[in-house]
């Protein structure tokens, strides 16, 4: 049976207690010291991933104990060493391809160094993440009554691996697009690239996140920031936000303060077969992140080759992952918001409240 590995890590210090219950009783400062020196751990054995074709695979979650903040603040070479060690553990367990979860794919050169140091191929899973983020955004926008060709669509983290591919694909169809990140020069270069391919597009770029959010009806957010970027006071009534980033770009208080906007989690996928992850990463049974799903699909396809790697994704691979998903029965899980499933009724209520607010402000 083909076998995949997927490297995970706690997004925040609280996530550590999902695996180690004793951590709830210990001060954060102690846990942070401990996570720096802990070796990688075999977090779980994944069983029952079964394709529509009947083929079944198994896998392992391997945990690097560093949090997102530690990954960004500790020296990159030390962080990469830890991730490579986790990859070697996956190799020892017989994994034939390794996926990089959350910040393990963001750090350094986005998997290239890690792949060079390992004997088995590596993927960040970002191609299928892009595909599902776009699919989820289109679905959510339609449910809120937005015609993507008429509204202002903004991509936050637009120059990143995920954001760049999302921007290039959306640029083929949309009339109004806004690109956001911190480095203006990179944004301008991407803007030029997209305008060359789609001369009629109204395409702006900015480093001012709040100003960009204020004029947007639809936002896809995929930044590499540790802190929240999208605040309740900046969102328009009826805005749709697809938050791909982990940790999230949308502030938690948006869920409490804005019942007239639709925030969905990007890249959440239903996995085919009687799958058991034997690990709680906060989603219902049978659902995973798209980056995990990409790793599984490559294992099902016997595609033991480096796939989504480095800062520039191939758009053809985004399309290829969609074809692989159809073949094996992976699909977008129902829309979710702040770790809860969103029903049709709930979305209709959000839309009604937004419409009321918009009428009141006219
Ligand atoms: N849901 C899923 O299945 C899934 C899968 C893979 C990855 N992810 C998540 O997706 C996110 C992006 O991943 P990636 O590989 O595309 O990362 P990346 O290549 O490092 O790109 C990050 C982007 O965010 C921008 N950025 C970073 N910090 C920012 C800040 N404080 N304010 C505004 N922009 C900022 C960067 O540009 P500047 O440096 O110029 O600002 C860049 O455009 C990460 O959170 C990752 O964990 C989710």
State the end-to-end distance. 61 Å
Which secondary-structure class do the elements indicate? alpha/beta
Unique bound compounds: NADP nicotinamide-adenine-dinucleotide phosphate
Report strand order across the widest sheet: 8-7-6-9-10-11
Helix content: 25-40%
> What is the number of independent domains?
2
- What Rg do the Cα atoms give? 20 Å
Annotate the secondary structure layout.
Elements: E1 3-8, H1 16-19, H2 28-37, E2 41-50, E3 56-63, H3 68-73, H4 76-92, E4 97-100, H5 112-117, E5 122-123, H6 126-143, E6 153-156, H7 161-171, E7 176-180, H8 184-197, E8 202-206, H9 209-214, E9 218-221, E10 240-243, H10 253-257, E11 262-265, E12 268-270, E13 287-289, H11 290-300, H12 315-328, E14 331-332, E15 336-337, E16 340-341, H13 344-361
Helix pairs in contact: 6-7, 6-11, 6-12, 7-8, 11-12
Bound molecules: NADP nicotinamide-adenine-dinucleotide phosphate.
């Amino acid at each position: 049976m083909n076998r995949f590995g997927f490297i995970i890590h706690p997004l925040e210090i609280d996530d550590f207690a999902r695996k180690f219950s004793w951590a709830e009783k210990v001060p954060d400062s102690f846990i942070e010291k401990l996570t720096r020196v802990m070796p990688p751990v075999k977090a779980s054995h994944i069983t029952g991933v079964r394709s529509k074709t009947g083929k079944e695979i198994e896998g392992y979650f391997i945990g690097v104990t560093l949090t997102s903040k530690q990954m960004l603040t500790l020296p990159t070479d030390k962080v990469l060493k830890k991730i490579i060690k986790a990859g070697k553990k996956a190799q020892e367990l017989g994994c034939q391809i390794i996926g990089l979860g959350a910040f393990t794919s963001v750090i350094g050169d986005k998997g290239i160094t890690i792949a060079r140091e390992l004997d088995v191929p590596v993927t960040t899973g970002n191609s299928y993440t892009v595909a599902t983020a776009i699919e989820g955004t289109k679905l959510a926008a339609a449910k809120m009554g937005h015609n993507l060709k008429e509204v202002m669509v903004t991509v936050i983290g637009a120059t990143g691996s995920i954001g760049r591919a999302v921007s290039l694909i959306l640029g083929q169809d949309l009339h109004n697009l806004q690109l956001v990140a911190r480095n203006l020069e990179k944004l301008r270069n991407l803007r030029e690239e997209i305008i060359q391919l789609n001369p009629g597009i109204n395409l702006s770029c900015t480093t001012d996140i709040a100003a960009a959010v204020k004029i947007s009806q639809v936002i896809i957010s995929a930044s590499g920031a540790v802190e929240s970027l999208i605040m309740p006071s900046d969102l328009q009534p009826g805005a749709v936000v697809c938050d791909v980033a982990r940790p999230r770009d949308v502030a938690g208080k948006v869920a409490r303060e804005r019942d007239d906007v639709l925030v969905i989690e990007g890249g959440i996928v239903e996995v085919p077969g009687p799958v058991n992850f034997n690990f709680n990463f906060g989603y219902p049974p049978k659902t995973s992140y798209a980056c995990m799903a990409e790793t599984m699909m490559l294992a099902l396809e016997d595609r033991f080759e480096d796939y989504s790697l480095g800062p520039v994704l191939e758009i053809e691979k985004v399309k290829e992952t969609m074809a692989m998903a159809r073949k094996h029965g992976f699909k977008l899980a129902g829309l979710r918001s702040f770790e809860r499933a969103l029903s049709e009724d709930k979305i209709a209520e959000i839309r009604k409240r937004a419409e009321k607010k918009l009428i009141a402000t006219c």
